[in-house]
Amino acid sequence: MTEEHTTGKMNGTAADSSLRILVVDDSSTIRRSAESMLTTEGYDVVTAENGFEALSMVARHNPDLIFVDIMMPRLDGYQTCAIIKNNAQYRSTPVVMLTSKDGLFDQARGRVVGSDLYLTKPFTKEELLAAVAQHAAA
């Protein structure tokens, strides 16, 4: 962890190009795709392949925005989001749920655990960047 990763971000209002984004998905293809789409736009991206690793990455990197897959083994996206949102230090960090499930029940469950947005896979680069833009201004 280098010092430049934390400068200008303590108050949560970082410039777009210095946003740190955490992408959590058990699919390496989704992680690599999202990372590539975001890094080409100048964002600082860290990834995790499961909920437990995500919690460690949140504590280590203090991301400005988190994309988390719902269907993961052991600790799913709902549980991961709930743990993040129940921590006072990270409660205001936007969490975007990533999933192939697009039912109303799934979206409602995401809201119950504190997610800020619901993005259905497969997502386009434009949808991903729109989600970032929506929460970067928040």
Write a compact overview of the structure shown.
With 138 residues, the chain is an alpha/beta fold. It has helices spanning 28-39, 51-61, 77-85, 104-112, 125-136, and strands spanning 20-24, 44-48, 65-69, 95-99, 117-120. The protein has a single domain (16-136), classed as Response regulator (Rossmann fold), CATH 3.40.50.
Structural features, described:
It is a single chain. The chain has a 5-stranded parallel β-sheet, with helices on both faces. It has 138 residues and is of the alpha/beta class. The protein is 38% helix and 17% strand. The longest helix has 12 residues, at 28-39. α2 packs parallel to α3. The protein has a single domain (16-136), classed as Rossmann fold, CATH 3.40.50.
The topology string of helices and strands comes to: EHEHEHEHEH
Global morphology: globular
What's the number of domains?
1
> Radius of gyration, Cα only, in angstroms?
14 Å
Give the tally of β-strands.
Answer: 5
Class based on secondary structure composition and strand pairing: alpha/beta
Which class in CATH terms? Alpha Beta
Distance between the termini: 25 Å
CATH topology: Rossmann fold
Low-confidence stretches: 1-16
Helix content: 25-40%
Which sheet architecture does the biggest sheet show? 5 strands, parallel
Percentage beta strand: 15-25%
Specify the CATH architecture. 3-Layer(aba) Sandwich
Question: Order of strands in the sheet with the most strands?
Answer: 2-1-3-4-5
Overall pLDDT: 87
Tally of helical segments: 5
Tell me the CATH superfamily: Response regulator
